[in-house]
Design brief:
- By secondary structure, the chain is of the alpha+beta class.
- The chain is built from eleven helices and ten strands.
- It has helices spanning 3-12, 24-28, 47-57, 79-89, 98-112, 191-201, 209-222, 228-244, 264-270, 313-328, 345-361; strands at 117-125, 128-135, 147-149, 157-162, 167-172, 178-180, 251-256, 280-286, 292-298, 332-337.
- Strands 7-8-9-10 form a four-stranded mixed sheet, with helices on both faces. A two-stranded antiparallel sheet has the order 1-2.
- A hairpin with a 4-residue loop joins strand 4 (157-162) and strand 5.
- The radius of gyration is 24 Å and the shape is elongated.
- The chain starts with a helix and ends with a helix.
- Mean pLDDT is 85; it is low at 260-264.
Length: 364
């Protein structure tokens, strides 16, 4: 982000209380550990005492926009810190006036657009929007509402239980699939959050986190059946949980993208546009800021006739058309050829490197 953009933001926000309805300490403690940040005043051990002295006891010591110039908070030189700060300014806990929120969001987005960022709605609290920043042209707008995944056995049958609110209900074979029913925050869905949900669902709240995690992993593994390629992807990613911690995005297998009770022949006979034939994604990662990454493992059935095992241009064309549609909806699609997922050291390293680079790509 350029210095010009930063100056425009500071100047434009000069007449706005960046902390909203909260006082400055309460707002900053939503983002920072003030007792861990250093002081600028030797009379006080940490930043919190420093701020109390110069903004509460002697409010004329520092200007109202001091936060944007204080190097301890990263707003001068760190894009991620500034973007989180701007999004937090619009949080419902900070501002209640919807007109003020919309006005601020418009100003911020008109300023950020030159550097390729924007604030987008990723969630809601009591009808009030929650925002996060992301790069323009990435991510899927709107919050995730229905996450149905890891089906085992017969396909679940799904209906709209409330069409106005887009609420779904699994009316048959629900025992064969998992439905994550907690609201997703702007940070996507982490393995820690998924295991916490699993512990409550399976009455394992008194069980160690490691045992809950292993139990959930085994359940996800079952949904892949005897598909060794997909199992290798899941195993490789699972190793990251123990190495990097449970705060990283969860790799979710066999996720339902949409549900269509009719056959493709039915749609063609009625003249209605044919929906995507791929109703399930092999894997889904929900990153922060609305970033949704789809991973597909391509066996021979994706590009060849299963009976003759000869290349099938029509089948391949349908597959790439589906990918285009997903990308237009904001999803990122990454495909692995079946030969890339065989049990070799080179392939294992290739898969590990892919996940490393994917994490680096979305570290902001």
């Amino acid at each position: 982000m350029t210095e010009v953009t930063r100056r425009r933001l500071v100047n434009g926000l000069r007449t706005t209380a960046w902390h909203g309805l909260l006082d400055e300490i309460d707002f900053l403690e939503r983002l920072y550990d003030l007792n861990a940040l250093p002081t600028h005043d030797d009379r006080f051990p940490t930043a919190k005492g420093d701020i109390i002295q110069h903004r509460y006891n002697n409010p004329e010591d520092w200007d109202d926009d001091w936060i944007f110039h204080d190097s301890r908070f990263g707003l001068k030189d760190d894009d991620a810190s500034l973007l989180r700060f701007l999004a937090e300014m619009l949080h419902p806990d900070v501002r209640l006036d919807s007109d003020e929120v919309q006005k601020l969001r418009t100003f911020v987005n008109e300023t950020l657009v030159h550097d390729g960022y924007e604030l987008v709605e990723v969630d809601a609290i009591s009808g009030a929007p929650v925002f996060a920043a992301h790069r323009i042209g990435t991510g899927v707008p709107g919050p995730v509402k229905n996450l149905i995944f890891a089906a085992i056995g017969p396909k679940p049958e799904i209906v709209l239980s409330d069409a106005l609110n887009n609420d779904v209900l699994v009316v048959k074979n629900g025992e064969n699939c998992l439905t994550y029913d907690r609201p997703l925050r702007a940070n996507g869905l982490t393995w820690a959050e998924l295991t916490s949900w699993w512990a409550a669902l399976t009455h394992m709240s008194d069980t160690s986190e490691r045992e809950v995690s292993l139990n959930l992993y085994r359940r996800l593994q079952r949904s892949l059946g005897d598909n060794e390629a997909e199992s290798r992807v899941l195993r490789t990613y699972a190793e990251r949980y123990s190495r990097l911690g449970a705060a990283i995005p969860a790799l979710i297998p066999q996720v339902y993208l949409h549900y269509d009770p009719y056959t493709r022949a039915h749609h063609r006979s009625t003249g209605v546009a044919v929906p995507l034939p791929r109703q399930r994604m092999d894997f889904l990662l929900l990153f922060p800021q609305g970033i949704r990454v789809v991973i597909e493992c391509d066996g021979v059935q994706h590009y060849a006739n299963p009976s003759t095992r000869r290349a099938d241009p029509r089948r391949y064309a349908e597959m790439v058309a589906e990918d285009r549609e997903l990308r237009l909806r904001g999803y990122e699609v990454y495909r692995f050829g079946g030969d890339e997922l065989t049990d070799t050291q080179t392939n294992q390293q290739r898969l590990t490197t892919f996940f490393d680079r994917l994490a680096d790509r979305y570290s902001v």
